[in-house]
Amino acid sequence: MHGIVKRFPGVIANAGVDFDLLPGEVHALLGENGAGKTTLMNVLYGLYRPDAGEIWLRGRRVAFSSPREAIGQGLGMVHQHFMLVKPFTVAENIVLGQRSPREPLAHDMRQTHRYLRSLSGQYGLAIDPAAPVWTLSVGEQQRVEILKALYRGAEVLILDEPTAVLTPQEVDDLLAILRRLAGEGKAIVFISHKLGEVLGVSDRITVLRDGKVVETLPAQAADEHGLARRMVGREVLLRVSKGPAQPGEVRLAVQNLSAVNDRGLPALRGVSLEVRTGEILGIAGVAGNGQTELEEVITGLRRATSGTVTICGHTATNRSPTAIGALGLAHIPSDRYAMGMLRYFTIAENLVLQRVGQAPFTQRGWLRKDIIRQEAQRLTAAFDVRTPSVENPARTLSGGNAQKMILARELARQPKVLLAAQPTRGLDVSAIEYVHRTLIAQRDSGVAILLISTELDEILALSDRIAVMYEGQIVGVMDGPGADIHQIGLMMAGSKRSSL
Ligand SMILES: Nc1ncnc2c1ncn2[C@@H]1O[C@H](COP(=O)(O)OP(=O)(O)OP(=O)(O)O)[C@@H](O)[C@H]1O
Ligand SMILES: [Mg+2]
């Protein structure tokens, strides 16, 4: 890719980017939120037309006007939100995408299964073509997307933050698969904010900042601090410091809480915990052990089958999210696109979402657009949400900036209790530093914080106390400072030894 320029209204997402990719390499693309990584790959994949610049593929100049054309030339992209039809099998999903409208439906499925099985074996994907997609874990669904790209003959594979939603074991599996694909001569673009992964899996690293290439360097010549500095343009603290907690009265109490998951199976089995003002209680655990259900029950998005939730002394069990919010709970949701924002509403509207009906935003029944805009400008400046205008739809924000918008909105409500679930998923190193500082400042100003995170590093960095969740239960609680990582790891894996 030579001199790629891509503009959006008010933003230059790519300002003359040169990027090259070799067969047999894993090439990482690094950069702050909004640096232009996804845009560059969308240009390559035919989703966007560049305003200037050239793309050359195997010595020939190409200009894709759609992903279909890019796929036809051997490109494949694995998106973060999978586009699989859940009731269908793996093979059906893969053939579904492939079929042209003129082709008859009568595929020889047996032959397809055989081919997919051999392809899956060749690259160590461990996917059964006959499995219905709804039975697969997130990591497996991702591997189906990879298999789909390979089935269509991909020689170039683009993965945009593939590890953000995976468990640590799934991450290791994926990285091994990427090495194997590169070993077979595929060219891989790997986008990630996790510097450790990037250093572990890549051959070369390109760092983008503000739509420009800062540097392309061999991975052996790089280290975490140096990469962070190149991305951000300053020294980044990879861990923020905090003073000891000064816990006060109990603000959030969960007692003997039980609930079922979407399939009707027990997901919470008698969870009890307390969070006090001025402290951060971190819930550690491998994804899928009831953390999402706990988040949903506390915030009123899922019914408790038994037990109670109390916020600031008031019963919150099975009340509506609005009523629970009014008791003083703010919520940074783990699934920001599904629960955290209205993508087609403006950034300003998103920022005053729960407060829009109140003064000063509504006066005598009239929406005060000017006051809403002022508040939005204040919040975007205070929380460093980068956008040319608060009147743009929220969907135009890059992933990290969308997360900062949600944080800004929730903290602007001056909550008594904050439930922060995966608050830094998809954020770059400096945004993580910022969010961590903000959470600690909130704690110090007296907010009670329940932190749910599958990132053990994050739990260890922030928590005053740590509770480990396993199969719907709290299997141990310990002090955060000086916590034994090894012991937490064992508990996360199901060993019930508790330090209590
Ligand atoms: N469809 C769009 N309309 C308007 N602006 C956009 C659009 N897509 C991206 N942008 C803007 O282009 C810039 C680059 O965004 P991009 O999504 O490429 O960043 P990124 O490096 O992938 O960031 P992140 O790490 O947060 O995913 C951002 O300022 C973003 O707001
Ligand atoms: Mg992106």
Secondary structure topology:
Layout: E1 2-8, E2 11-17, E3 26-31, H1 37-44, E4 52-57, E5 60-62, H2 67-72, E6 75-78, H3 90-98, H4 109-122, H5 138-151, E7 156-160, H6 168-183, E8 187-191, H7 195-201, E9 204-209, E10 212-218, H8 224-232, E11 250-260, E12 266-276, E13 280-284, H9 291-299, E14 306-311, E15 314-315, H10 321-326, E16 329-332, H11 336-340, H12 347-351, E17 362-363, E18 366-367, H13 369-382, H14 399-412, E19 417-421, H15 429-444, E20 448-452, H16 456-462, E21 465-470, E22 473-479, H17 485-492
Mean pLDDT value: 91
Strand content: 15-25%
- Termini separation: 57 Å
CATH superfamily of the largest domain: P-loop containing nucleotide triphosphate hydrolases
**Ligand names:** adenosine-5'-triphosphate, magnesium ion
Explained architecture:
The protein is α/β, with parallel strands linked by helices and 500 residues long. The protein has 2 domains: 2-232, Rossmann fold; 250-492, Rossmann fold (3-Layer(aba) Sandwich). Helix content is 33%, strand content 24%. The chain has 17 helices and 22 strands. The chain has a 6-stranded mixed beta sheet with strand order 6-7-8-3-9-10, sandwiched between helices. It has a 6-stranded mixed beta sheet with strand order 16-19-20-13-21-22, sandwiched between helices. Strand 21 (465-470) and strand 22 form a beta hairpin. Helix 3 packs across helix 5. It is globular and about 70 Å long. Residues 37-38, 398-399 line the site of magnesium ion (MG). The site of magnesium ion has 4 residues, from helix 1.
